[in-house]
Write a structure and sequence with these properties.
456 residues, alpha/beta, TIM Barrel, eight-stranded parallel beta barrel, 8 strands, 10% strand, Proline_DH_dom, Proline_oxidase
């Protein structure tokens, strides 16, 4: 089955002169309480302080020794945890989501369970099976948070593949994929068949233990996708480090063959594309064409990327060519080109092509909204926007109030698990945190306005 061009809206193509850009001037902050704004300003300023981000885990251990676990935990809950995390229990998460929904925003739940690629601690099958159970509970929670009385929206959640399969295996597979391009031994079709049938998959260059782990990993991924499809929850697969991304893309392609068929109502499995990599625009176009030719729906989460510093350090250490864009401006140009490519695909293929514009950059968001207008893509159609909980609210709120579909990426869980996760995310998103000065200025401006009793 091939894609057909589907009309997205009935209005004629508007002229650029009719375009009215959104204003990201903090005007929508009136929807938030003063205490929330004050906490946001304090936390964003703390997170923009490089020593705190670099030595976050050491600061956490130091505060526990000095203040005790209870007081240290209370301070974290009132600050960083409270700003970026929905809560620990289902009731706390529901309360956070209900508050977001009153602001015109939707939840994108993220389980803060993962294994760092160089970790040696969490390698047993029992740990991965435990993560599987956690992911299935996240599917249930994501579904339970949907307001069935409101407008129909896609229910989304994030999926980290290395929570279900070893990064070492992914690295091994990635090396083989790059060496033997075109080999049928690791084709998406073969992996999809193994997922669907449950039959053992034997890969010649893997040992017995690795083959067993690969089969168990395929089973876990298939289980999550199958359960998510049954609960009508779409999975957005996170991108990770480049030395394992070929394997992740292969696994996503295998899942897509099964769950992104139009008759399934796909796409149920989306992949993430990182604009800070030099190859992304070409790979995105190739993957979109491949999905088109296979008659599959195609789902994309487009990000700038979060692993820049480590990617460059690894390339330098190994004497390899740097795969990243040379600077932020080049990354922004790459993001713009990828965004234009995907928006045109959406306009041509309608509900069979979905896009999340996952960006905190105002120019990228404005480009997306303007091109949606010019291409006739409706606000409640296959394009949505995504930002992190607790960040970029001046953009998220403005989009939500204007009628765009906006998701907030929401980690949840106990303090002990989530704080190390937040610190790693902060280290990966250094440039975003340090670039949040405009948001800090808008928050400060709104707080002073309230303090002085001025009208908006």
């Amino acid at each position: 089955m091939l894609w057909t061009r589907l009309p997205l809206s009935c209005h004629s193509r508007p002229s650029t002169a009719d375009w009215q850009p959104l204003r990201f001037d903090g005007g929508a902050f009136h929807l938030k309480k003063t205490a929330e704004l004050a906490r946001a300003l304090l936390v964003l300023r703390l997170c923009a302080w490089p020593p705190l981000v670099t030595h976050g885990l050491a600061f956490q251990a130091w505060s526990q020794r000095l203040l005790g676990s209870r007081l240290s935990g209370a301070l974290l809950r009132a600050s960083i945890y409270g700003q970026f995390v929905a809560g620990e229990t289902a009731e706390e998460v529901r309360g956070c989501v209900q508050q977001l929904q009153t602001l015109g925003l939707l939840p994108l739940l993220a389980v803060p369970t993962e294994e760092e690629p160089d970790s040696t601690a969490k390698t047993s099958e029992a740990w991965y099976e435990g993560n599987l159970s956690t992911m299935l509970r996240c599917v249930d929670l994501s579904r339970a948070l949907v307001d069935t009385s409101g407008p129909a929206r896609n229910t989304l959640m994030q999926l980290k593949v290395t929570a279900l399969t070893s990064p070492r295996l992914c690295e091994e597979l990635s090396t083989w994929i790059q060496k033997s391009a075109g080999s049928s031994e690791l084709s998406p079709e073969r992996l999809a068949e193994a997922m669907d049938s449950g039959k053992n998959l034997q890969v010649s260059y893997l040992n017995t233990e690795q083959n067993q782990h690969l089969q168990a990993s395929l089973s876990r991924l298939h289980h999550v996708a199958q359960y998510a499809r049954a609960q009508r929850v779409r999975l957005l697969v996170d991108a990770e480090y480049t030395f394992i991304n070929p394997a992740l893309s292969l696994l996503v392609a295998a899942l897509a063959l099964r769950w992104n068929r139009p008759e399934e109502g796909g796409p149920w499995v989306w992949n993430t594309y990182q604009a800070y990599l030099k190859e992304t625009r070409e790979r995105l176009e190739w993957d979109a064409d491949a999905a088109h030719k296979a008659g599959l729906a195609f789902g994309v989460k487009l990000v700038r990327g979060a692993y820049l510093d480590k990617e460059r350090a690894v390339a330098q250490l190994q004497g390899k060519e740097d795969c990243t864009q040379p600077d932020y401006e080049a990354t922004s140009r790459s993001y713009s080109r990828c965004l234009e490519l995907m928006l045109r695909r959406v306009s041509q293929h309608g509900p069979l092509c979905h896009l999340m514009v996952a960006s905190h950059n105002e120019e990228s968001v404005l480009q997306a909204t303007k091109r949606m207008w010019e291409l006739g893509i409706p606000l409640d159609g296959p394009v949505c926007f995504g930002q992190l909980l607790g960040m970029c609210d001046h953009v998220s709120l403005a989009l939500g109030q204007a009628g765009y579909v906006v998701y907030k990426s929401i980690p949840y869980g106990c303090l002990e698990e989530v704080i190390p996760y937040l610190i790693r995310r902060a280290q990966e998103n250094r440039s975003v945190l340090q670039g949040a000065r405009r948001e800090q200025a808008l928050l400060s401006q709104e707080l002073w306005r309230r303090l002085l009793g001025r009208k908006a």
